[in-house]
Amino acid sequence: MKTYTFAVLPGDGIGPEVMEVALEVLKVTGEKFGFNLHYKNADIGGIAIDNHGLAFPDTTKAICEKSDAILFGSVGGPKWENLPPKEQPERAALLPIRKAFNLYANVRPGLLYPQLTDASPLKKERIPSGIDIVCIRELTGGIYFGQPKSTQTLPNGEEQAIDTMVYQTSEIERIAQVAIDTACARGGKVCSIDKANVLETSVLWRKVVTNYFKEHAPEIELSHMYVDNAAMQLARDPNQFDVLFTENMFGDILSDEMGVICGSLGMLASASLGANSNSLGHPFGLYEPSGGTAPDIAGMGIANPCAQILSAAMMLRYSFGEQEAASSIEKAVEVAVTSGTRTGDIAFGLESVDTASMGAAVLQSLA
Ligand code: IPM
Ligand code: MN
């Protein structure tokens, strides 16, 4: 029987509670589709600061290196909020792990089932059949990582800070390919988002994207949009997009906007795919829910586990090549939620269930 090896990094807040449910769903899926799952737990984020003095310890890195994928929970919380920004769990765990594993492609599906349109702040008539879009965000370049990046005191005593936005052709081309692959498996449309009326990096981005698509995917319908307009269009008519495709910081902002129009963050999964292949010949990747640690409800057993379950499904699809198993988990979540089993974040007047019961409903739909 096939065995897939992955690292489990539950992290902080609701991370461990929802992870437990996702692992159960993976186990049952493996039994159904004929594969074994072998995983090792490791600390990341705040709990790693507490236990090892660092948000992303070497011991955790070593466990990830021996794996074919990382299933990630979430990091951060009030306990670590007073640390200097660079040492806080989110930044000190997420940015180095992305860099360490070259996770350059962030895939965030923005999915809102038609039965859940109440969850969206958008008017129902704008999204009569829900929302179904994907954001592809470049994740290891741009202003997040560009050098110089520093703060210094000027001769006149003022402080000055510098971030540098930098992109090169190869970085743009490899993420363009991810946008193409994603669009091919969906509606065949890509909207590339930039600020080419102002930024040099965006002028290059638009040129490289245009040429790359012309040469490698002429069948894809490519359009371009400025990021300020894209933010408006997303709120006005999200389904005009199929695949939104953009650089690191624009993607950070737009994917959060996408999250809010899709209703509950408790439903949104994500994949961060690496440049390197794993031992199975598929992309090494990190899979994490978009929602964060939700400290207000952590430990209460009422968090929505669906985003973590759907992230596990993405791991099966991208890093293990188990398309059918992934789809069956996605279907099971949809059936469970749309037939009325819902945690508080998506209940809207229906009786709400706890984390374990939500997981049980997904397992039941999986059977
Ligand atoms: C995200 C987060 C991170 C980012 C932060 C926590 C460093 O907001 O994954 O979108 O900005 O990329
Ligand atoms: Mn973000």
In round numbers, the mean pLDDT is 97
Shape by Cα distribution: globular
Q: Count the beta strands.
A: 12
Topology order in helix (H) and strand (E) letters: EHEHHEHEEEEHEHEHEHEEHHH
Low-pLDDT segments: none
Which bin fits the share of residues in helices?
A: 25-40%
What portion of the residues fall into strands of 2 or more residues?
Answer: 15-25%
Q: Using only CA atoms, what is the Rg? A: 20 Å
Q: Distance between termini? A: 20 Å
**Major β-sheet strand ordering:** 2-1-3-12-11-4-5-10-8-9
List the helices and strands and how they pair.
Elements: E1 2-11, H1 15-33, E2 35-41, H2 46-52, H3 58-65, E3 70-74, H4 89-100, E4 105-112, E5 131-138, E6 146-153, E7 159-164, H5 169-184, E8 189-194, H6 200-216, E9 221-226, H7 227-236, E10 243-246, H8 248-261, E11 271-277, E12 283-287, H9 306-318, H10 323-338, H11 355-366
Parallel strand pairs: 1-2, 1-3, 3-12, 5-10, 8-9, 8-10
Antiparallel strand pairs: 4-5, 4-11, 6-7, 11-12
3-isopropylmalic acid (IPM) is lined by residues 90-91, 94-95, 252.
